[in-house]
Design brief:
Blueprint (H helix, E strand, L loop, with lengths): L3 E6 L2 H8 L9 E4 L6 E4 L1 H5 L8 H10 L3 E4 L2 H16 L5 E5 L2 E5 L8 H16 L3 E6 L2 H13 L6 E3 L5 H8 L12 H9 L5 H5 L3 H7 L2 H10 L17 E11 L2 H21 L2 E12 L10 E12 L2 H15 L6 E9 L2 E2 L11 H21 L39
This protein binds a DNA duplex (13 and 19 nucleotides) through helix 3, helix 8, strand 9 and strand 12.
Length: 425
Amino acid sequence: MAPVALVDCNNFYASCERAFNPKLEGKPIVVLSNNDGCVVARSNEVKALGIPMGEPWFKIEKEAKRHGIVAYSSNYALYGDMSARVMGLLGRFSPRQEIYSIDECFLGLEGFGTRDLTAYCQTIRQQVRQGTGIPVSVGIAATKTLAKLANHVAKKRPGYDGVCDFGRLTPGELNTLLDEIGVSEVWGVGRRIARRLEVMGITTVQQLRSADCRWIRQQFSVTLERTVSELNGIACIEIEEEAPNKQQIISSRSFGKPVETLQELSEAVCSYTTRAAEKLRSQESVAGSIGVYILTNSFKPQEPQYQRSQMVPLPTPTDDTRQLAQAALRGLKHIFKPGFRYKKAGIMLLGLEPKAHRPRTLFDDPAADSRSARLMQVMDVINTRMGQDTLKIAANGIERSWKMRRGMQSPRFTTDWNEIPNVRA
DNA sequence: ATCACGGTTTGCA
DNA sequence: CTAACGTGCAAACCGTGAT
């Protein structure tokens, strides 16, 4: 069985901020979620201070300032671009790469014969560090699930120096190691399942690994059964070089301030629909229906609460932003009730299918279809080249008073000349 | 009794 | 000064009506 490597960027968002600001080296830094809501990335210094992941910023801001923690609003333009650079470099080290998330990828390591995988992966680390400034760790094992654990070991245990190959351990050594790791570190075991396993007396990876497959299947699910097999070195999850098309596309966001008017909600819904439709077209699919939802702030139980959603079927499946937005706005009008302070809205595209397979009827208008396709193409090209929303439909609004807060964002160092300090294009 | 469905909940990252 | 708590996705689950 060919080994698999899982390459994961260390504290990715925090490392991106640091890569362009060397003064932050050794300093505790956090990156916040949209709206500067929760902590989504922490440097090692912050982890050492015991600040948990996902903590609402307002709860810890005072304490954080005392410790000299530097906070950043998330800067997805920067992180996305840095990710593309890291992934591009990593792709050169293997013929098979699965980009699993913004900061991790799997690499197939077949055909290396007896060569030293650990040394090879040290080279990978060094090259990525040199080429991008981002530190990465590498786990190597027979299956993706084990590679994830090996990566965890590479990160947490200093002796490994950022690379851990389970293939170099004897079965006995691996058993001992896995018995020291909590079951919740396993890929696919979250809080919920970890708790249930704990009640059954399974607390370590080694215990889960030696559990009976059929019993696991019956008590939990096929998914967890597969995980157990993978922990035993039986590959059930293949490296997927190309991402399968999405079955649904969601776009939702909390507002920067409470929103009360249908007008503002309409702008938000329209702009979310625009984002989702761009994704839809990029995978060359059409949507059969669109759902809209709005809700008030449940963290303020003293205020009147309201939440509702509405599905709107499209007359014929489409990828045209105008048709999708029109349908979404109809749905929104149907569920909108005045007198509430709305916190969040979202839309979802459902019933996705490849555009080429879309059923045609006698009443189709091929000329209109091709006009729509060309307009969407022009919009996509212009917006890709010149920036999001350079060209947009009017219902998006101009003011956008509802848009999210991001008070502490760093410059988009790699994608916008105008934001680089001391440079003006 | 079984299936397809749509909608909701659960779970993960 | 105040108020301030993410997003995206799939699988599992569940009730319903059709067969």
